[in-house]
Amino acid sequence: MEMRLNYIKVQPEAFQTLLKLEGYVKKSGLDHKLWELIKIRASQINGCAYCLDMHTKDARATGETEQRLYMLSAWREAPFYTEAERAAIALTEAVTKISDAGVPQELYEQVRKHFDEGQFVDLIMAINAINCWNRIAISTGMVPGEYQPAARK
Fold this sequence. Notes:
Elements: H1 7-10, H2 12-27, H3 32-46, H4 49-61, H5 66-71, H6 83-96, H7 98-101, H8 105-112, H9 117-140
Helix pairs in contact: 2-9, 3-4, 3-6, 3-9, 6-8, 6-9
Pfam families: CMD (PF02627)
Protein name: Carboxymuconolactone decarboxylase family protein
């Protein structure tokens, strides 16, 4: 597998624009472990090896357990996730596969039991950001394996 092009060098302003969205989500107060689960689940659905490599490493760096990472693709059958995490993961799946059924009202209500309006918007922004990153990584042929998480403070 070989990288097709370095989109950051070709269009740095586009890269910076997406980083602003990422920065918004980072400042939103969304739980970092949940954010990583969102990134991993969307990346699983989209088949983005580069992002899976990156975000599983980042999740481990935040203290996420191997068991929860391994079971994420089968989260409905695994008892290792809170009800709030389950709602956010279900929302991640619905938004990532939005053409299948949209975001049903029942799912919206389930998510809202655990997240207020502002947090709902933050979840949507986080889900959309990772879907955008997945599509960029896949389209440009980013190669997994070299990414290392930044040192934790």
